[in-house]
Each structure stands twice: as structure tokens, then as C-alpha cells.
Amino acid sequence: MPYYWQTKYCHKKRLTALPAKQPSCVTFAKKPLARKETYRSKHNTKLGEGAPLQQERKERVPIDPDKQLPYAIGKMLLIDKPLHWTSFDVVRKLRGILQIKKIGHAGTLDPLATGLLIVCTGKFTKNINEYMAKEKEYTGHITLGAVTPTFDLESEPEQCKDIAGLNHEMIYAATEQFTGAIEQLPPIYSALKKDGVALYELARKGIEVTLEPRKITIHSFEITAIDLPVVTFKVVCSTGTYIRSLANDFGAALGCGGYLSSLRRTRIGEFKASDAIDLDALMQELSGTTAPADINNILPGE
């Protein structure tokens, strides 16, 4: 169980195995914000057992040239990004297995998000900007009654507030101000850069940064379930939208605060997460340790 679910609760309802049941406000042992490159090693080690075990580096096994060639020429892959992987983790792992240099992803997913990640190789890398510009669809959970510095569970909930006065009508009505063309402030803990430095690096050093709002479009913002303090949502939006910021702003509009407690990207344009391939299955197929993966979600080069 991740450290942010092993807590004392400010609500009487105890946490079940599902993120949707977590309380809005919790008390944590003080921990520094984790650096993204340590996520997988941190979550592969049990809480409280000290530093992650260092895995012995394995010698790279040459890939079958017949398998490598189509990727070197160019493919577009639909990957279901696992929890706690950065988007670059996925690219780096596939680059190592395929042993090719020309590979990249078409739109970052945060480590605490899962779902559709488009990865391009070879000549398909020239289409990355086109894929990035496509409409996005997300589902997830917003926990009301507290906020976090990162707007999600990458940091500790704070500023707990009573949500007893909230009702379903207020929650549904609050979505209306976040639909259509709006301006949104990105999170300070983001990969956006100022003077060549990522904002999250400045934030970790305590350096104050003035952020400018960005124009985005929320095509739809639907509340699909309510089980306070958690609301379940589906959002369809333009590129450049930060769902973490939407969760924070939504909580602020309700007067109680809120943070993103889970997120899954379900669609990019016409490409769906339901058609994406499991990353482990793809890696095993490329390594020759299992039967070939379903090639319907690995689009060949033209």
C-alpha cells in the first residue's frame, strides 16, 4: 500500500482497497516530495524497510533484427502506462529493449496517472505534435475537503475543511463554470519550464514563480458518481489542460478545497485506452519470453 494511504483519518470512514474510498484529509509522517525518477524503485520497496534494493544490472541482450526493423522504420504504439511510471520511463525502457534512438511519446502522463500513452518510433516521430494536439478524455476521482501543494497525491493533504454542508446539487452545479473556453493556471509542480528550468525544480527549492493562465477548452465535465468526500468524473478537454488544476479549482469553487486522487487517460483523439497494449506484455514479446502481443494496438508504419 502506498505511503499516502497508510494514514490516520480525519473522517470516520476507513479506507478500502479502492482510491475512491480514501478520506479527504489525512495525517502523514513528514516526507520530502519524491523525485519522479525514484517512483518505481520506491514503490517496489515496502514502506519502512529503508532504501530500495539495488537491482543488479543485467547485460543487454541483442534484439532479433527482424523484430527491431519495423520499429526502426516507424511505428505508432498505444501503451497502457502503468501506475508510478513516468512517461519517459516508458520511452527509456522501450528504447533499451528495441535498441533504437528515434523514439518519443506524444503527451506526458503524470506518474500517479494511468492510461493511454502514444509512443512513436522511427519516421512516426514526425507525427508526435499532431497526436499531442488531439482532444483528450480522462476519468478519475477528486477528493473534497482538503488541498495538496501538487494538487494530487504526490504531496500531503492539508487545510482540512468540513464538507457536511455539501450536497449533490452544489457539486453538479459547480462543473458549469469549468466548461467551454476558460483560462487555467498550471500547477507549480509541473514540467513546464521558466528560463529553461522545470517549475517543479524551482518549487522544490522554495523559489516563488509567477504563473500566467493558459487558455484551454473543457468540452465536457461530467460528475458520474458521488461518495463524499470523493466524486468520480469524466472530462473531455483540449491539449494543455491540467486535470490536477481542474480538481484544485473545482474544490476551491465549492469552498472546501479538493485534490486529484486518481486519474486515467481513456482517449486521445480517435485512439482509446481500451485498445492499448499492456507494457509488460509488449516488453515480454519483444524480449522473446512469451507469445506475440496483440498487434492491433501497435500500428505499423505506412
Largest sheet: 11 strands, mixed
Return the string of H and E elements. Answer: EEHHEHEEHEHEEEHEEHEEEHE
Q: Any idea what the shape is?
A: elongated
Q: Distance between termini?
A: 44 Å
Integer tally of domains: 2
Q: Classify the fold: give the CATH topology of the largest domain.
A: Pseudouridine synthase
Radius of gyration: 20 Å
**Helix-residue proportion:** 10-25%
- Structural class, by secondary structure, is alpha+beta
Number of strands: 15
Report the sheet-strand fraction: 25-35%
Structural write-up:
- The protein has 302 residues and is of the alpha+beta class.
- It has two domains: 65-134 and 270-300, Pseudouridine synthase (2-Layer Sandwich), CATH 3.30.2350.10; 135-268, Pseudouridine synthase (2-Layer Sandwich), CATH 3.30.2350.
- 22% of the residues lie in helices and 27% in strands.
- The protein contains eight helices and 15 strands.
- It has helices at 39-43, 65-73, 87-98, 128-132, 168-174, 199-204, 243-254, 279-287; strands at residues 8-9, 26-27, 74-81, 103-105, 113-122, 136-144, 180-184, 193-194, 197-198, 214-227, 230-237, 258-268, 271-272, 277-278, 298-300.
- Strands 3, 4, 5, 6, 7, 10, 11, 12, 13, 14 and 15 form an eleven-stranded mixed sheet that branches. A two-stranded antiparallel ribbon has the order 1-2.
- A hairpin with a 2-residue loop joins strand 10 and strand 11 (230-237).
- Helix 3 (87-98) packs parallel to helix 8 (279-287).
- It is elongated and about 65 Å long.
- It starts with 7 loop residues before the first strand and ends with a strand.
- Mean pLDDT is 81; it is low at 1-22, 26-38, 46-52 and 291-296.
